[in-house]
Amino acid sequence: MSEGRHVAIIGAGAVGVISAIEALREGHRVTLIDAGEPGGEQAASYGNAGWLSSHSVIPPAEPGLWKKVPGYLMDPLGPLAIRWSYLPKALPWLVKYLLSGWTEARVEKTAFALRDLLKDAPLLHKKLAEEAGVPELVERNGVMHVFPSRGNFDSNLGWRLRKKVGVEWMELNADEMRQREPDLHPRYTFGVVVEEAGRCRDPGAYVAALAQHALASGAKLVHARATGLKLSGNKLVAVLTETGEIACDAAVVAAGARSKQLTASVGDPLPLETERGYHVMIENPESGPRSSMMASDVSMVVNWTDKGLRAAGTVEIAGLEAAPNWKRAEILRNNLFSMFPKLPKDIPDSRIKTWFGHRPSMPDGLPCIGHARASRDIVYAFGHGHVGLVGSARTGRLVAQLLSGKQPEIPLAPFAPTRFL
């Protein structure tokens, strides 16, 4: 496979811009294609929690989850909500989702694959941030998980599997937690600190800086919405957009939750769905955590960003087009005030910002990273679900290796798009 090809990368989110950087490093010419601005509010990369959690190896579906589905259908404000109107369309994906976590053995297999993808991710991101001139945006200072009791931690399958795949952590009792986090509600009596993990202080600004680094290194950016891929036999000849064709001889599909139409255009009907997510952010909050943390009882990440204190979490299955349910953001806000009672109750609404976006998710919790069936000129890199930002660093390296015909640095069989075809 020849090097120095013209690669069109569809999507200028975290995966797309890092793929561009790594493809340029391999000697390829790169054109980024995205209708929006890199790092803009329209992108999932902008609104995520900002965790660089190399220990996020547990897929969303775990054994016994099927028992909770009726409750999810009845509660539009629960941690995982499914809109009735969208259920018929989502049902095939939901069945695969539940089956993927049906047994502990299946979840363990996924955890080992994700560990390969995410291990050392904070270090990889730190190096990228330094290259892009924004080293201050990535910090490798650990993250904390807090629990109402030790029992909540001990009974959790995810932590048993994290131990199996080599994740290490430090345990904290109630007194040690209080010394570290004096503003945290006393209902939390046990915590763990994963010291290898990191955080991003402004995900939108980070992705924008990476995009600028790619452009400064020779990439081009075309503002257009890609609609398909054009083949001549098994050779790629162009990316189709709403404004015309962009000739190229290789392409990367990294369009997040909107990748499904693109893969279908070359005969790969992949089961990609959007796990709609929300965040709430308080500007100048005056109180809160000293470190980034996740609270087990509300399934919510709290992270300081340069713009304010951000709380993110929950999943809503309702497709790409349905209007946001802003009550879900209100729940995040209420949980934040509950976790940190010293937060002023009279913070004006002008200092409380909300956001809604689309996580691109495959039903088994693993992204698609690999070639299209129709042509090895096309590389898929999407579907990262809850690990898009943290997983983007190594994914970009893998994309460049596939484009250059090199041996990927980790086994890609678990991520092969053909597992669903």
TrEMBL record:
Domain called FAD dependent oxidoreductase: residue spans: 6-402
InterPro entries named in the record: FAD-dep_OxRdtase, FAD/NAD-bd_sf
One Pfam family cited in the UniProt record for this chain: DAO
Keywords: Oxidoreductase
Keyword Oxidoreductase: yes
PANTHER family in UniProt: GLYCINE OXIDASE, SARCOSINE DEHYDROGENASE-RELATED
Protein name: FAD-binding oxidoreductase
Provenance organism: Bradyrhizobium barranii
Source taxonomy: Bacteria, Pseudomonadati, Pseudomonadota, Alphaproteobacteria, Hyphomicrobiales
